[in-house]
Amino acid sequence: MFQALAGYAVRGPVQGAIVASSMLVLSTILAPLVVVSSAIVALVWLRLGRKSGIIAVGISLLFSTTIALMTALPALAPAGVMLSSWLPVIVMAWVLRDTVRLDLAILAGAVLVATVVVAVFAAVPDVSGSWRTLFGRVFENPQLLPEQLRQMDPELRARLLDTASRYITGMYAAMWLFIAALSLLLARAWQARLFNPGGLQREFHELRFGLVASTIGLLIVVGALVTRAELLTALAMVVCAIFVLQGVAILHGIVKRRGGSLAWLVAAYVLILVTMPESLVFLGVCGIADAWLDFRNKAGGEPPDEDQQ
């Protein structure tokens, strides 16, 4: 069904705007559809180009703002939702179309998200304090708390509040980037299926962010662990998001090179899910270390053919 929608969306910017806006509205009922909405936007940019992409986003903004003015919603609410949902994936799709480099596209999204994080810490004197105040208001109203939190020891609940306030900015930024990257990959998969079957496989299996990005990422993570500074901690979570993605690419690449079946990937994903968050840390470490250790080549087997684009 979604591939059919993707095929309809690339007929023109109007069709793309209709599908992307509809999926974004439906995501208020079924949250994962925000990935589909962002992927449609990325697909329009990738297939139809920058001009059509801008037109599609403009039509979506005009349509949603009109609906907001006709209802009780604030006029700028739809624009804010679209900006937060679509901006990173638009930047990624823009870079990917111009460079045909998946690594550079995802890194561009990471730079954007990291810039927003730095801007937040520059604009807000006490970021964790602001979150603590917000969460404190929620905690003061027992009706808003889940049963487990209501029954929790007050001292333990206060420590939980402090921990959440310290890490929530970085967690949100990492999730924002990860969802945008997944949306880009979904758009690229649709593009491959519609116009270039098998084209995504080599691109993803050989995904590498390079020595420079890995070194910078490693320094940020080490700096966060040593100093425990809130800004570096938030940036380290953004770093982890992209290198977890590279860790997954390493997994796929090794299974492909060794001639493994789909069952190996299914088993690996099950293991990742049941051992989270430790498995995500392991994937992130592998992603960073790959710049020096090159796991895929060390695993042996045949690399993908050069003509498998």
What do these coordinates show?
The protein is mostly helical and 309 residues long. It has a domain at 199-309. It is built from 15 helices and no strands. The longest helix is centred in the middle third of the chain and has 42 residues, at 154-195. The protein is globular. The two termini are 25 Å apart.
What is the topology?
Elements (H helix, E strand, L loop, with lengths): L1 H8 L3 H14 L6 H16 L1 H21 L6 H23 L2 H22 L3 H14 L6 H5 L2 H42 L3 H7 L4 H18 L2 H28 L4 H13 L3 H16 L1 H4 L11
Helix pairs in contact: 1-2, 2-3, 2-4, 3-4, 3-5, 3-9, 4-5, 5-6, 5-9, 6-9, 6-12, 7-9, 9-12, 11-12, 11-14, 12-14
What share of the residues does DSSP label as strand, in percent? under 5%
Order of SSEs: HHHHHHHHHHHHHHH
Query: Counting H and I runs of at least 4 residues, what is the number of helices?
Result: 15
Give a count of the beta strands, DSSP E runs of length 2 or more: 0
The largest sheet, given as strand count, sense and whether it forms a barrel, is:
none
Summarize the entry for a quick read.
The protein has helices spanning 2-9, 13-26, 33-48, 50-70, 77-99, 102-123, 127-140, 147-151, 154-195, 199-205, 210-227, 230-257, 262-274, 278-293, 295-298. With 309 residues, it is mainly alpha-helical. It has a domain at 199-309.
